[in-house]
């Protein structure tokens, strides 16, 4: 085996519009690092959370500060380069990278500053939620986010933000106070309810379509020790448990949340050995209310005689990291999703039939509740349209081996096709692959025309198009009604 010496890409290998001199000039402008094919850290810079996606950018600008971001946006605009923006790199469709273009990599920009008196937290655009949880928990505070601590703050927030605290405190965007952004024309602006309100409306659910968010200002909420963890039942009781869950959770106090899941029990602690590798159904709970009421609230759960009730007091960051080891970066992922208003018996039958065929230990289906505080924000108050949905359904085929990619993808596609007739029509953008323009339009519904207008105002040339793209052109009516 021979070791080949690589040099940075120059000359004919560069994309149209770039020259070696222009690349070196850009490199000199950066306080961060410019990475190209052949560099020792190029492979690492192109790794995504979803290892099913492979892309080869011409350059990765690992930005150190806002000035680096401004320079990178200017280069992409002036040289007409395909442009992608990378925060945490968790996007299911691999939209943090772009072939033969420029990637603005924010992963060095991870600062978090908490103001405990104002109960706010300022978060840099490359931070992950573990960074935020670490900083806020010291003050007994939390920002609503997802369920895996390695998820990027930027991607999850710009898509809406669903997780354990949604019922109590709303979506992540419902706790967003302001953003600092670099726009397509190079301007650096702060958008909030008073300044650039149209832009602030759009970034709350509209994804990365409007610029590069270099920092977020969030409202933090009093969350310290929660009572959480999984309750599991045998899969042959799944229909019974789903019917119970669809009635129980919407009627429960908002400080109790729980997402429903089909799982294969991991063969490791804290799960008892007799349950290892069994296909089961369950609910993963998070209770943020008075601990004295916990026994009362969980009594109906225990009345269903679960096989495992692993619910206990824990620091909120502990719950947030519970799935990190099961879902590390580098697995094969295939996602399909929908918003759901109701879970009828006919849908439950289809769910159970696909749960019986879970194709791998990590493959799963989750139903995340969207009611409670999230319903007190109107469907047109932010770009996130489906405020009237009760759940966000996500079906994911996951496996470490590339050899299983076809199997897990087929299962997820067939499962989604079987359940889609019972959906509300659109899907949470953070759970979507690249599924086409009609699907994007369905996800934003009657908010889509307004999003197009904002796109025309701030990115008329569609520089920021490597995303669930909102086109600045005319809105086309969908060809099929859902």
UniProtKB/TrEMBL annotation:
Tree of life domain: Bacteria
Keyword annotations of the record: FAD, Flavoprotein, Oxidoreductase
Cofactor(s) it depends on: FAD
Limits of the FAD-binding PCMH-type domain: 52-223
InterPro entries reported for this sequence: BBE (IPR012951), FAD-bd_PCMH (IPR016166), FAD-bd_PCMH-like_sf (IPR036318), FAD-bd_PCMH_sub1 (IPR016167), FAD-bd_PCMH_sub2 (IPR016169), FAD-linked_Oxidoreductase (IPR050416), Oxid_FAD_bind_N (IPR006094), Oxy_OxRdtase_FAD_BS (IPR006093)
MF annotations from Gene Ontology: FAD binding; oxidoreductase activity
Entry similarity comment: Belongs to the oxygen-dependent FAD-linked oxidoreductase family.
Name of the featured protein: FAD-binding protein
Native source organism of the sequence: Corallococcus exiguus
Species lineage: Bacteria, Pseudomonadati, Myxococcota, Myxococcia, Myxococcales
């Amino acid at each position: 085996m021979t070791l080949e010496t690589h040099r940075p890409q120059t000359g004919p290998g560069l994309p149209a519009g770039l020259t070696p001199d222009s690349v070196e000039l850009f490199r000199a402008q950066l306080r961060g690092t410019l990475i190209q094919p052949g560099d020792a850290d190029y492979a690492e810079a192109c790794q995504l959370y979803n290892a099913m996606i492979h892309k080869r950018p011409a350059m990765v600008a690992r930005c150190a500060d806002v000035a680096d971001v401004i320079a990178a946006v200017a280069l992409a605009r002036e040289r007409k380069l395909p442009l992608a923006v990378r925060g945490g790199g968790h996007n299911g469709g691999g939209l943090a990278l772009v072939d033969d273009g420029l990637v603005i990599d924010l992963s060095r920009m991870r600062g978090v500053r908490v103001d405990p008196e104002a109960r706010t937290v300022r978060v840099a655009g490359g931070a992950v939620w573990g960074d935020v949880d670490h900083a806020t928990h010291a003050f007994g505070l939390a920002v609503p986010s997802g369920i895996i601590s390695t998820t990027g703050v930027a991607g999850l927030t710009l898509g809406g933000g669903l997780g354990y605290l949604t019922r109590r405190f709303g979506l992540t965007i419902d706790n967003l106070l302001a953003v600092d952004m670099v726009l397509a024309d190079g301007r650096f602006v702060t958008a909030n309810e008073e300044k650039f309100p149209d832009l602030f409306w759009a970034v709350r659910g509209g994804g990365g379509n409007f610029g590069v968010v270099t920092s977020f200002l969030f409202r933090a909420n009093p969350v310290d020790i929660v009572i959480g963890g999984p309750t599991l039942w045998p899969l042959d009781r799944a229909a019974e448990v789903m019917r119970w869950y669809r009635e129980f959770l919407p009627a429960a106090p908002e400080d109790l949340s729980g997402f429903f899941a089909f799982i294969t029990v991991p063969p490791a602690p804290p799960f008892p050995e007799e349950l290892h590798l069994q296909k089961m159904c369950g609910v993963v709970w998070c209770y943020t209310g008075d601990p004295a009421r916990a026994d009362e609230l969980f009594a109906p759960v225990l009345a269903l005689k679960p096989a495992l009730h692993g619910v206990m007091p824990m620091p909120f960051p502990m719950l947030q990291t519970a799935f990190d080891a099961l879902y590390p970066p580098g697995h094969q992922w295939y996602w399909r999703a929908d918003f759901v208003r109701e879970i009828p018996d006919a849908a439950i039958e289809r769910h159970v039939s696909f749960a019986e065929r879970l194709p791998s230990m990590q493959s799963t289906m989750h139903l995340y509740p969207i009611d409670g505080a999230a319903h007190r924000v109107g469907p047109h108050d932010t770009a996130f349209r489906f405020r009237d949905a009760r759940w966000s359904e996500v079906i994911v085929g996951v496996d470490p081996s590339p050899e299983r990619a076809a199997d897990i993808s087929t299962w997820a596609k067939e499962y989604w096709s079987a359940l889609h007739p019972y959906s509300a029509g659109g899907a949470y953008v953070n759970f979507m692959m690249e599924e086409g323009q009609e699907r994007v339009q369905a996800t934003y519904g009657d908010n889509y025309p307004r999003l197009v207008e904002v796109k025309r105002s701030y990115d008329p040339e569609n520089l920021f198009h490597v995303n669930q793209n909102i086109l600045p052109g005319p809105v086309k009516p969908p060809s099929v009604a859902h």
